[in-house]
UniProtKB/TrEMBL annotation:
Its main location: endoplasmic reticulum. The lineage of its organism: Eukaryota, Metazoa, Chordata, Craniata, Vertebrata. GO terms for cellular component: oligosaccharyltransferase complex. Pathway: Protein modification; protein glycosylation. It comes from Ceyx cyanopectus. This is Dolichyl-diphosphooligosaccharide--protein glycosyltransferase 48 kDa subunit. The gene is Ddost_0. It is a single-pass type I membrane protein. Belongs to the DDOST 48 kDa subunit family.
Length: 76
């Protein structure tokens, strides 16, 4: 149990990056690299991923969420 706690403490903030398409990972690689360099643990998924889950066993799987969807127009 102690080893698990130590491993969890070493990991950076768990961050889910939702991408509209896989190309965004390449076109924004400098941004993602800067986050990783600051200790963020990035997980990349597409928004239409059927296996995507934010909560498991009542616990949040991620500390942060970044949504990259440039084709959707903002309102407000």
């Amino acid at each position: 149990l102690l080893a698990l706690l130590v491993a969890a403490a070493r990991a950076g903030p768990r961050t889910l990056v939702l991408l509209e398409n896989g190309n965004l990972r390449d076109t924004h690689s400098l941004f993602f690299r800067s986050l990783a360099d600051r200790g963020f643990d990035l997980t990349f998924r597409t928004a239409d991923d059927a296996g995507l889950s934010l909560i498991k066993y009542g616990e949040f799987l991620y500390d942060n969420l970044i949504i990259f969807s440039p084709s959707i127009e903002g309102k407000g």
